[in-house]
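ESCALATION

Customer reports they have been waiting on this structure for their group meeting. Please prioritize. Original submission:
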Amino acid sequence: MPIPKPNENETKEKFMDRCMSDDTMKKEYDNKQRYAICETKFDEVKRAISAKNKKALQKKVTDHNEEVKDLNKSWNLKVTYAKLEKVFDRGKGAFTNNPSSVRPGMNQTSWALARVNSFLYAIKKGKFRGGKHDTDLLPNGHPVKEAMKEKKNNNNIWDNMNTTEKRFFDISLEKRNSDENENTVVVGHAAVFNRLSENLGGFQERILPGAFDDVLENDVRAFFNHDPNHLLARSSSGTLRLSVDDKGLKYEFDVPNTTSGRDLLVSLERGDITQSSFAFTVQGDSWAKENGVDVRSITKVKRLYDVSPVSIPAYPDANDLAVAQRSLAIEKEKQQKKEEEIDLISRNLLELKLKIIKKKK
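Update from on-call: job pushed to the front of the queue and completed.
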């Protein structure tokens, strides 16, 4: 007499209800007998499925580790059975808990194995084909894991919607007497064209010629150390003059007979101040890889706020770099989408070729 068998996706509760209510089983056995037979059958089949799945996972571990043994990556390419078992079990759970995400025609095992295959692809290639999953199981140094860590560390760049940036340049300043009056004039460059900056926290930067062409008429202040309490000159009053030469953004201003002005002159005479800085917002920029480093080229400045001789050119803080980091994050997202599109096209072409080959056979 045939005893009902549990389906692969069937829970024990549903199988027991079906088995206990089977007409043939009801004729042959009483309630206690039926329950014992049904439960034994369920456990027997599930053990067989479990053994089959274990064998499949062990084979995947062996095949994958053999395939990647000669590859040289910055992360550990090998996997263990315990790790794949976790991915597999999560796939089974997702099948049960989120059935709307399951492709039609797939059972629980095939869905869980597809998740394992996706994970192995990510381990080998350094990226997922589609949506990310099980990222906590990725090895340290894996590109996806590192990108997520970087995104987490830089979450504040999206919270901080400040648009002003500051940059510092180690360039010479000089003072001289004005030809037109008795004022002492300070001359320097707030920015230099085509000079690659130091590492600004994951990227470098340069300013291209033409970036300041549209902001020379802005109402710009000259401060000492970017401090509004130490105003030195202002372009709208004619005491600050801006221009662009081959070197970069040039400024000169008449030093005021104030405490700040006199202190600045003393420091310049002593050679204590040799740097300048400027505050600005960007209208246009672009990104490129140079020697493996992300490099931002500022092509157009939208607004120039101040130029400042500075005594200590501080490393730009989080506020100063937030705009650049947002721009870099957007650029990386664009590149990732482009790579995913290229990968999708390649896989579609491969599938098409395979179909053509099969038809010819």
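Sent to customer with the following note: The two ends are 45 Å apart (CA to CA).
Escalation resolved.
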